[in-house]
Specification:
This protein has 836 residues and is of the alpha+beta class. The chain is built from 28 helices and 28 strands. Strands 14, 15, 16, 17, 18, 19, 20 and 28 form an 8-stranded mixed sheet that branches. Strands 3-9-8-7-6-4-5 form a 7-stranded mixed sheet, with helices on both faces. A 7-stranded mixed sheet has the order 22-23-24-25-26-21-27. The chain is elongated.
């Protein structure tokens, strides 16, 4: 997903969050007590604060702010590269004592990462990022990459990959930095400190960089944080934390093994040298909080918080609420899976007078959303009991309303746990079995819409198990997926040795009182993760695939197929289409879970349908703009001259001189049912021409079609191939072989689709591609079609022909973000290369 598409998707998700009263809310004025907020005139008990020790309302911190302002003013507006306010030395002295090492106060933890990481890591070093490490750490790593550092991403908590990459990189790199969170902010899980210690002891080059923002104050000596309570200081470990949250002040702090390294980061980290410093009010708050942390009182505060954390853990487990990770952190994540369930629970809790956070995309995968709770010292045990009672009552109602069971929700999380948690989930829910039977799927008793009165779902795995006439009436005129074309796909892409050319098919029809109201098909197939990325990114990924052909590839369940074009979804919008489509998507999600696929993809739907957009977003799918496709109305003229009159001046001139006037130079052969059948040698040649085009066109980056696909097209009614031959006397090849071809399909209606082409680029000056496009137009008109689908890419050439751009969208539901995180690193590499 490109950056612009990513931002558009985030905006859509967050807008929905705001509409559900869960995100981007503005609290109304009231004296702060740490546990209540007012939203829309209603007082709510909030479990969304990260000020875990409740110090934000402590009179000593308030007094510290007042004293600092009275003595030093509201700001000390000088860069630390010149002069620091007197408070800085006091603050850093206290922080160094608190953490037991040289401490550097930071304007924010984020700025600290951006400043420190490029100083610590250079072109001789490498970074291994846990893909769920905080975004600010990843931003700092991007800065280090600009300086020449190698940056890699491993799946969250993947012990094997960490050990493998550490071993490999320590052979060639001066330092190898593993960057992690001390407490992961969404799920509340913790890193494997035993493994980190082993790697530090095993490799002299191995270093650890920890952001413990959510662990600060809640554990450890003087409240140093969860991570330092679990893993002591090490000469090759850098520790960063936030002085917001439980510390209740502002800014951040970084702790170094030596003062020399601390001074190097302070003086060479550009945002610290030239950026604005922490201002006196917050320095006063930091100093006051540090004094509390250095006193014996901190143990009492931690114990009081721990009592609440343990109480909430027990309550959640006793009431069998779906807690993701059980530990001593004050962050709790309850599994909702689809985002619509999270919105539902949050709305219900708000009606009960309780505010909870929704963990939503992009901080978690779309299908792994949840309710995020944070508990503080402000909460009484009665408050916590009220929270849990409300959750226990509302949770099953929300599940029922959304047509879900908790077992189905939990299966979305199986691959997102550390090993022990994975084992526990598999013990609870069992191994998810796959299958590909060819009989209709049986209905399951689930939510209120799962088996609604009068609706019937048919799910088969071969087109031959459906009523062929009915299918062609519903979808046969849409593109290359009439019954005959689907039979061809099943013959071509089944039982093959190459993973990328071995597909499984799923056909769905939902009927109301016997009448179809929804129909579509999906294929399970191996996709390239960069399929929709820019060409420059795909070329960089393809360089990796020279040694690893399946690098960044994923098994997808996608609407349609990788060799079909058009709107694959039939909906009778006058009927109960939402219930029908919800059922299809539910069955598709079940297949994704059972088959352990990477994503569900609903593709090629027309853009500009807000009702369908809202429905699919509510179902947990992310909208991604697809490449623009092109369609030409071919019934607007009767003669070539009338067609030329429709074009602009320059396009008309080029079309006349380069295509129409030279058409007589060419010889055209029709191959297929009812026409000539090609020889095996000719099929092999045409496939090589296709590969010529495929090698150049990576904007829609897919695996190569197998060498049998053109043969099967020629044996299938509806498909035809136009082969373009250029005689020797016109400058063609001596052996008379085709220098281009196009494979097109005519379905049951008035639409013709140009699907696959091939070109011998030695004859590019003969305008082969333009002649291919023109012959495709000729074939569409020959068949009496009214529209010609020209697919994606080659925008300029198609628009010159008068084709109209058609906006279309893909809706995606990924099971995790790892592939996207790796892809993002490649995008950063490509951006750096382009700017060099």
């Amino acid at each position: 997903m490109e950056a612009s598409e990513f931002l558009a998707t985030i905006h859509e998700v967050f807008t929905t969050g705001r509409q559900n009263g869960a995100m981007f809310q503005d609290a109304e004025d009231r004296p702060a007590d740490g546990k209540h907020i007012i939203l829309d005139g209603e007082e709510l008990l909030t479990f969304g604060s990260c000020c875990y020790l409740g110090l934000e309302t402590d009179p000593r911190l308030k007094e510290g702010v007042i004293r600092a302002v009275e003595r030093y003013g509201t700001q000390f507006s000088t860069s630390r590269g010149y002069v620091s306010t007197p408070l800085y030395s006091q603050v850093e002295e206290h922080l160094s004592e608190l953490f037991g090492g040289p401490a550097l106060a930071l304007p924010t933890t984020t700025l600290g990462h951006i400043a420190a990481i490029p100083v610590l890591v250079n072109e001789k070093d490498a970074i291994i990022l846990d893909h769920q490490v905080h975004a600010s750490v990843q931003t700092g790593a991007t800065q280090a990459r600009a300086g020449g550092a190698t940056v890699e991403v491993i799946r969250h908590g993947d012990v094997g990959s960490l050990e493998e990459r550490a071993e490999a990189l320590t052979r060639t790199k001066r330092h190898v930095w593993h960057m992690i969170d001390g407490v992961y902010s969404m799920f509340g899980d913790l890193p494997d400190v035993d493994l980190l210690t082993r790697l530090l002891n095993r490799y002299e080059q191995f270093h650890v960089y920890v952001d413990d923002a959510h662990g600060m104050s809640v554990d450890g000596k003087h409240g140093r944080g969860v991570h330092l309570a679990r893993m002591p200081h090490h000469p090759r470990m850098i520790f960063a934390t936030s002085l917001n949250k439980a510390f209740a002040a502002g800014g951040g702090c970084m702790v170094f093994p030596t003062d020399e390294l601390r001074q190097k980061v302070r003086m060479c980290g550009a945002p610290l040298t030239f950026g604005g410093p922490l201002q006196p009010p917050m320095l006063g708050a930091i100093l006051a909080s540090a004094k509390i942390h250095l006193s014996s009182e901190i143990e009492t505060l931690k114990a009081e918080l721990r009592t609440r954390v343990e109480f909430l853990n027990r309550q959640l487990l006793q009431r069998e609420l779906p807690l993701l990770a059980h530990n001593h952190a004050p962050i709790f994540f309850l599994r909702t899976g689809p985002l619509r369930l999270a919105w539902n629970v949050a709305r219900r809790m708000r009606r009960r007078g309780i505010y909870v956070n929704v963990a939503a995309y992009p901080t978690v995968p779309m299908k792994r959303s949840g309710i995020r709770l944070s508990v503080t010292r402000h909460h009484s045990l009665e408050d916590i009991e009220r929270l849990v009672n409300a959750l226990a009552e509302e949770w099953p109602l929300a599940l029922n309303e959304e047509g879900l069971t908790q077992d189905e929700v939990d299966r979305n999380f199986i691959n997102d746990f550390e090993d022990a948690q994975k084992r526990r989930l598999r013990e609870l829910f069992g191994k998810v079995e796959g299958g590909n039977g060819r009989k209709p799927a049986s209905a399951r008793t689930r939510g209120p819409w799962a088996v609604p009165t009068g609706l019937e779902l048919q799910h088969v795995t071969s087109i031959d198990d459906l009523d062929a006439d009915e299918w062609d009436r519903l979808l046969g005129d849409r593109g290359t997926f009439a019954v005959s074309a689907l039979r061809m796909l099943e013959r071509t892409f089944r039982d093959r040795p190459e993973p990328e050319n071995n597909w499984l098919f799923h056909y769905f029809v939902v009927r109301h009182d016997g009448r179809p109201i929804a129909a579509t098909f999906f294929t399970e197939a191996l996709w390239k993760d960069d399929m929709l990325m820019r060409s420059e990114v795909s070329r960089r990924v393809e360089a990796h695939r020279r040694s690893d052909p399946y690098f960044l590839t994923s098994k997808m369940l996608a609407m349609g197929s990788l060799l079909s074009e058009g709107n694959h979804l039939f909906l009778d919008r006058t009927g109960r289409w939402k219930e029908a489509l919800a059922w299809i998507l539910d069955e598709a999600s079940r297949i994704v879970q059972q088959r352990e696929l990477s994503a569900l993809v609903v593709r090629d739907l027309p853009d500009g349908d807000p009702e369908l957009d809202a429905f699919l977003l509510d179902a947990g799918l992310v909208k991604v703009p697809m490449l623009t496709s092109f369609e030409l109305a071919v019934d607007r003229w009767n003669t070539d001259q009338e067609y030329l009159a429709l074009l602009g001046r320059s396009a008309r001139k080029a079309m006349r001189e380069e295509v129409l006037e030279r058409e007589r130079d060419w010889r055209f052969r029709l191959l297929g049912v009812g026409y000539e059948q090609p020889t095996p040698e000719e099929l092999a040649h045409l496939h090589r021409l296709y590969l010529n085009v495929k090698a150049r066109k990576v904007r829609l980056n897919t695996f190569d079609l197998p060498d049998t696909v053109l043969r099967e097209m020629c044996r299938t009614p509806g498909w035809e191939i136009v082969a373009l031959h250029l005689p020797v006397e016109r400058g063609g090849p001596a052996d008379g072989r085709a220098v281009g071809f196009v494979a097109g399909f005519k379905g049951t209606g008035k639409r013709y689709t140009g699907m696959v082409c091939g070109i011998d680029y030695d004859y590019q000056k003969k305008h082969v591609y333009r002649q291919i496009l023109w012959q495709t137009i000729r074939r569409a008109r020959f068949h009496g079609c009214t529209s010609l689908a020209l697919g994606v890419d080659a925008d300029f050439e198609k628009q010159r022909l008068g084709a109209r751009a058609q906006g279309q969208c893909v809706y995606l539901q990924a099971t995790d973000h790892f592939g996207g995180a790796v892809m993002q690193q490649i995008v950063h590499e490509e951006a750096l290369k382009a700017s060099a």
